[in-house]
# Entry
Amino acid sequence: MTWDYDAIIGFSNGMLRGVELQKKKFKYTNLLDASVALSTLSNFDDNNIITSSKRKILLFNLNNKKISKTYVIQESGNIIGVVKKDNILIVGVENGTVVFRPVKNIRNVVLEKVNAGSNLTCIKQVLALSKFATGGNENPLKIWDFETGKIEFTAKSPKPDMLQLKQPCNVSDIGFFNNNKAVVCHRHGVVELFDPLSSQRRPVNSSTAQNTGFVCLRTLPDYSDHDVIVGSTKGSIYHYDFRGKTTLPVKTFRGSTGSIKSISCINYLSQMHVMSISLDCHVRLHNFTTGDLTLQDYIVAKPLSLIMKPEEN
Amino acid sequence: MESEPENEVVVKQPELPKLVRKKPRGLLRQEKLKELKNKKKVQKRDRKLRKDNGDPKQIPRTIENTREPDSTVFHSDDENFDQKTQDLTAEFEHDEFADYYSDLYKPKVLITYKEKPLRKVREFGKILTEIIPNSVRIFRRDASVKETIQAAIKKGFTDLIVLNEDRGEPNGLILIHMPEGPTAYFRLSNVIFPNKRQRKEFTDHRPEVITTNFTTGLGKTVARMLGAVFHQQAEFKGRHVVTMHNQRDYIFFRHHRYKFLKNKPSLRELGPKFTLRLQYLQEGLYDPKCGEYRWIMTDKRHKIETSRRRFFL
# Structure
């Protein structure tokens, strides 16, 4: 493993920084200065990570701290996410196409692109299965198969209210539990739990928040199959539990004054912590059990994406 | 056993409150004045003593110089001051106003009102168009702000100002930088219009712009945003100055004409005078429901304003 850092942050001014957690301190190391906004970050293998900006995908090598390869996607619109599966990069583009791009130039690619509906905002890989999920504005959750490129599950658009008025659907992030249930958070402040294995296409359970929208979401690792933490547009992080009947959050992690761009869970001083980056240019660490703010630091530039050190098996 | 009857006798009656005669008002005032006089006398004596001893002058304690430390304000004795200032310049080279400050375009401003503006707001908009160079004002009728933004982008405008009013008084100002944001909402108060004599002194020359006392990271962004409404090349022939001064989070707008009388500068107020107070700064274009906020005060003012000595700009 060449991961010397606990996390890596991508910035809007093209910087890439490794973050190490020390006692009561963050330590930063500059990795790259690309001068383009690095809007997404994802894992490639032990030595490489994938970043992307507008129409380019960059493979960044952590060993020699250089970009080892670039791919250009010939589609109109920015890249919103990249997923890697068996030597194929699956690229979601804003205009709704999902492009399959082989890592090495192999001619005999079966699939090239798939249309996933307009206004795509999110593409995620299903854990331990050869599937991926997409969602967007007025574009409910869809789960696809890698090999065939066919839809396996489509969520129904939300139920109209008691006056038969149409409800909005604006997916901002998707997460998966170990039992393959899917969680979706919306820009207008709704978190929904879907069960792709059952025949029900409407959400199994849902929670709403007043006056905020949700931007990012993370399911808790090895914790339970019901808990999820969600970052909001006004700066709070909510912890929701889908077991009970209440739609209120279990806990709120406060402290941020700007929208949460990305959140993740991390072990720090042998306790579970929630790490978040927000648009007010801060990195924050909250204790998960007590909900207190343990560490925060000003990082000057505007962060866009966060990736954690992959867990060693 | 003997003392028992005694005990019964010595039951104390609760004391009645003493009737204090109120001192006459004049006497109280006299006493107070006397005290004040004595205090000033002592202070004066002390000051004289200090002056004779050659001690340095004492600095008065004000809210500004006892303000709470903010992590986004840099001091030259910080731990990694050089690194942070470098990062800030790098951030400013890549943000939304980089094009303006590297002189790539000239701003073109559109000023609109609420749906059906009354006389006073129309007058205010008229004065703003006279001050801001290259600006146009229109009535947007029943078009929404979002529609107006899209139309303005097509016409090549770079900034949009929307004025709001309540009971005939202008009370809100939305400033939108186009085409990529950000959006800021200011509360507008204490609007004093220029009088007839001052209005006669208005000329078409481009004014000089001064933004002062913005210290924090958020403050610098707001200052850059306000500055980007005006042209960079001022016409010094007109001798106009537009000042936006920040003091305790209130931004004071002043408009002057200056003159040099035998090397002694003199100012002449032209008006209008008004005060701005930042309510929120939003990423991207105006979208109150689903937009991501960089900083927001509405709904959580009590959580944010924990102290009288804490300021954000």
